[in-house]
Design brief:
The chain is α/β, with parallel strands linked by helices. The chain has 2 domains: 139 residues, D-Maltodextrin-Binding Protein, domain 2 (3-Layer(aba) Sandwich); 105 residues, D-Maltodextrin-Binding Protein, domain 2 (3-Layer(aba) Sandwich), CATH 3.40.190.10. Helix content is 36%, strand content 22%. The protein contains 11 helices and 12 strands. The chain is elongated, with a radius of gyration of 18 Å.
Length: 260
Amino acid sequence: MLRIAGLAFGLALAFGAAPVRAEAPAANAPTVTVFAAASLKNALDAVSTAFKAKTGSELKISYAGSMALAKQIEAGAPADVFFSADETSMDYLAGKNLIQPGTRTPLLGNALVVVAPKSSKLQKLPFTTEAFAAAIGAGKIATGDVASVPVGKYAKAALDALGLWAVTEPNFAFTDNVRAALMFVAREEAPLGIVYLTDAKSEPKVKVVATFPASSHPPIVYPVALTSAAKGKAAEELLSFLKSKTAKAIFTEQGFAVLH
């Protein structure tokens, strides 16, 4: 298997939502620092624009793998809100008393899919060893690191459950976050990738060729919470806004399931 690290994450996240004109915030408008899973980028960028238009507050958002962000918070990185792609990363911070427990909310759900380049002749990929071996060929499957990145963990669990891990493991190219994996497929540098449905919807250069049964992996849940370092009303306002009709409409449009 191949481990891909040190990627320029800014390139991996060149999938931003279209800008929306909003009124300029007041000079003393507060800034809320958000650490968020990479798969939230398109949706959360749009939420940021809507939140700024409503409150005048700016969001400063850092996107990366959930556990990597959790460990940055543990190391003292300043963050007001943590928005994870899995419960495990949130549990990690909770175990160290680094989130405000009463603010934790399981906000979103997602689906796990296999994508191929849009130009690929492959249209549908059955969950059989023969089909996966033929689709991979001499190439790689791109997904997040199965040891630390939520999408990678979900992918391994699903492949294990379907009896496909043994045939696919030697061909994996592991990345630091799901958007980096998506980029490899979009650039036709990998014939297959395992990403979230929302990522597939955000990239016109890929297509979904298979959707994993929800029963094949743990539920994909995105919890959000205020960190223990969060201060002021702006962060609390953001948490409330994430549950508003406006934010829910944005998340739904991006392909997320709204859980709360």
